Amino acid sequence: MNTVLLTLGRLPKALDLARAFHGAGWRVIVAEPFRRHLAGASKSVARSHVVTAPASDAEAYLCDLLRVVAEEDVDLVLPVSEEVVHVAALHGRLPSRTRLFAMPQEVVLAAHDKGRFAVQSDGWGLAVPPTHPLGSTEAAALAQRQDVVVKPLHACSGRGVRVVRRGADLPAADPAAPAIVQGHVFGMERSTCSLVHDGVVSGTVVYQGVMQSGSVSIAFERVEDPLIERFVRGYAAATRWTGFLSFDFMLDQQGHPFAIECNPRTTSGLHFFAPEDLAPAVLDAGHPLRFRPETRLQQFYSCLTETQLSLFRGGGFQHNLRTLVSTRDVTWSARDPMPFLTMCFTTWPIIRAAIASRATFGEVATLDVGWRGDAPVSAASAAPGRAASNTGSASGTA
After folding, report:
1. Do 263 and 269 contact (CB within 8 A), yes or no?
2. Which residues pair with 47 in a beta bridge?
3. pTM value?
4. Which of 132, 174, 323, 395 is most buried, by CB atoms within 10 Å?
5. Taking Cα atoms as reference points, which of 263, 270, 236 lies closest to residue 249?
């Protein structure tokens, strides 16, 4: 029996992948810094290993993964979420029999770095908002012309993101926490999740939020957007990507999409792929990757919390309640009910951290596995391409 190692187990995306590979006849192992986690409650998972959190010691984390690979005779290492930037460093260190479904670390870093991503995409003729390093004269000039968004280079889930109105002072640049200044596109946000082999896209889900917790979508619907799908195909081909690949877009007032960042990993869009196709599509570039019949899905417990909170926030309760009672949960399975039934117990470490920091679940869920960057490359010095410019008709104004 073949063995797959998932390098995170706490998120519903990991549960989807575990169930998919178990259904395909594979043995599923999980490496996770938490002792208990969502996927670990599933009968699809044969064993879990506690590993060092990569944000605290990246090299120890990689050594732990290599130990698990050797002990479990792993055939495939499959990153799940933010930890992919660390896991990608396993290229060249794995046994010859073990495949890693991710790009080399330098390629993943270029996509994950918001400045380098904008430079690359603009250089390939792909639509991105104007983007410059915080502290540069170009960023200051951009902020005088229009509203801008200031983002840390390696943030996720909206952490540290702020909007600065046109003409207002930008925050001071901090060399210890590099950031970008990006033209603000005022419109609807959409996101994607794609599975790619050697630059060819096997399938792309385009989706938008129906209910939010902070900046993170906790209920979402699949939509059609050919322009976004064209961007995904262009970026995948330019990078000859292999692995999961995701993007966030803002639509301008004419409906034209502008990519604001790349997530070189899975996102919640993964839930819209037909479960029986996921594992075969990872293993075989030629396997079709279909959608599941539902066009709306939710993370039930997060939506329940948000619905309850909306009672006291003065708006949105009726919408949230309708969404809660009419939308299928991403975790529930009658054949594998324990992950859903025990979720409050298995996710308690994240819940506790969210309460302690007064942040949302999404903001703290991957803090210990995310990449912060020791010496990130700024948008001004990244290559290939040129400093990102306004490549479309978005005004970027509110």
Report:
1. no
2. 29
3. 0.89
4. 132
5. 263
